Amino acid sequence: MANIVFYEDRDFRGKSYDCKGDSADLQGFIHRCNSVKVEAGWWVLYERNNYTGYQYVIGPGEYNDYRRWMGFNDCVRSCRIIRNAKEAYKLRLFDRPNFAGQSLELTENTKYIQEKWLGQEVQSCKVLEGSWIFFEHPNFCGRQYLLEKGEYRHHSQWGALTSTVGSIRIILEL
């Protein structure tokens, strides 16, 4: 069963909130978030209420400071469990909106998208199996975007302001 514990202060101190499922508004439980313990499951944390703003995808482990999950600040206002992490993974990228132009199929992590792709522009994609994280920069750095099974006709549909993708990682269920 999925479980995550949020702490207002670093190093698992201060007021805490034990969460077992999706929460569109965490402000009633904590005012800031400086550390987290993920006891089970994979989660996406959002900077704003109602699953909006910057996304941070984290798995089982202890994060004693928001920078450990690549957070930009101590704002975590909503969260949800990632439900379709599984054993098969397949993703098709397109260099044009609406699944047009050149395409590339991936079945593994890609640390540097330019090794396999002409550029860093990914205008649309189809997640055929599994759950994936797009990172703004190579080496799994920068803004993160969760993509679950489905079709994304434009980069704005996965929450990105631009079509820049530097690296891609599979979400593995441990």
TrEMBL record:
Family: Belongs to the beta/gamma-crystallin family.
Protein name (Swiss-Prot/TrEMBL): Beta/gamma crystallin 'Greek key' domain-containing protein
Function of the molecule: Crystallins are the dominant structural components of the vertebrate eye lens.
InterPro entries membership: Beta/Gamma-Crystallin, Beta/gamma_crystallin, G_crystallin-like
GO biological process: lens development in camera-type eye; visual perception
Organism per entry: Zoarces viviparus (Viviparous eelpout)
Repeat is among the record's keywords: yes
Keywords: Eye lens protein, Repeat
PROSITE patterns: CRYSTALLIN_BETA_GAMMA
SUPFAM superfamilies for the chain: gamma-Crystallin-like (SSF49695)
GO molecular function, one term: structural constituent of eye lens
Domain Beta/gamma crystallin 'Greek key', first and last residues per copy: 2-40, 41-83, 89-129, 130-172
